[in-house]
Design a protein that fits this description.
The chain is 44% helix and 12% strand. By secondary structure, the chain is α+β, with helices and mostly antiparallel strands. A two-stranded antiparallel sheet has the order 1-2. A hairpin with a 2-residue loop joins β1 and β2. The protein is elongated. The termini are far apart.
Length: 102
Amino acid sequence: MTTATSLGDTTFFSLNVTTRGEDFLYKSSGAIVAAIVMVVIIIFTVVLILLKMYNRKMRTRRELEPKGPKPASPSAPGPNSNRGQQPATVTFTPVDVHMENR
């Protein structure tokens, strides 16, 4: 496209040459960005759905598998080793503290 601009006695010609390919790219750049964003959203959605399905599958597998016996805690060696199954309890009894009057 050629335009002529006249300033006084001097005429300036400027050439604004754009090819159809460049013009098409400028006009479609918004559509390209939108398409890339949509592809990224679709990929994230598919990954999220796959992770949720895997999580559900693993949770049901954990809930349905038989519970094995809990491993016995090793008893402490010593004079009390014969009652290894009884829980050890510690009781504190309050002690009366009397202050001496001076």
